[in-house]
Design a protein that fits this description.
With about 90 residues, the protein is of the alpha+beta class. About 15% of the residues lie in helices and about 30% in strands. A hairpin with a 6-residue loop joins strand 3 and strand 4. The longest helix is centred in the middle third of the chain and has 15 residues. The protein is globular, with a radius of gyration of 12 Å. It starts with 5 loop residues before the first strand and ends with a strand.
C-alpha cells in the first residue's frame, strides 16, 4: 500500500444554499483517505471520496491546469457547492 498523501479540499464556489454554510475559500487538509477533522458534510465527502482515492494512489488529471487536482466536484445536494481536491505532495 502506498504512503498516505497529504491533500487539500477547497470550496471553489457556492451558488446557493448549503446546510454547512461552506463558502469559497474554505479549506480542509486531509491525509490519505481520512475524513477532515472537526466534521464534514457526509454527502460532499461521498462525492469527493473517489477523487481523493485516485489522488492518494497517484492519479493525474491531464485535462486540468494543475494535473494533481480536480476542481469540478459538486455537492450532490443541488450542486450549489463546487469543490477542488488537490494532492499537496
Amino acid at each position: 500500500m502506498a504512503n498516505p498523501k497529504k491533500m487539500r479540499i477547497e470550496v471553489v464556489e457556492r451558488t446557493g444554499p448549503c446546510f454547512y454554510e461552506y463558502k469559497a475559500g474554505d479549506k480542509w487538509d486531509v491525509t490519505g483517505l481520512k475524513t477532515p477533522e472537526g466534521g464534514f458534510c457526509g454527502a460532499a465527502y461521498h462525492t469527493l471520496f473517489p477523487v481523493l482515492f485516485a489522488l492518494n494512489f497517484g492519479a493525474k488529471y491531464p485535462f486540468m491546469k494543475d494535473v494533481d487536482s480536480l476542481d469540478t466536484v459538486v455537492c450532490p445536494d443541488g450542486g450549489y457547492v463546487r469543490f477542488k481536491a488537490k494532492r499537496m505532495e
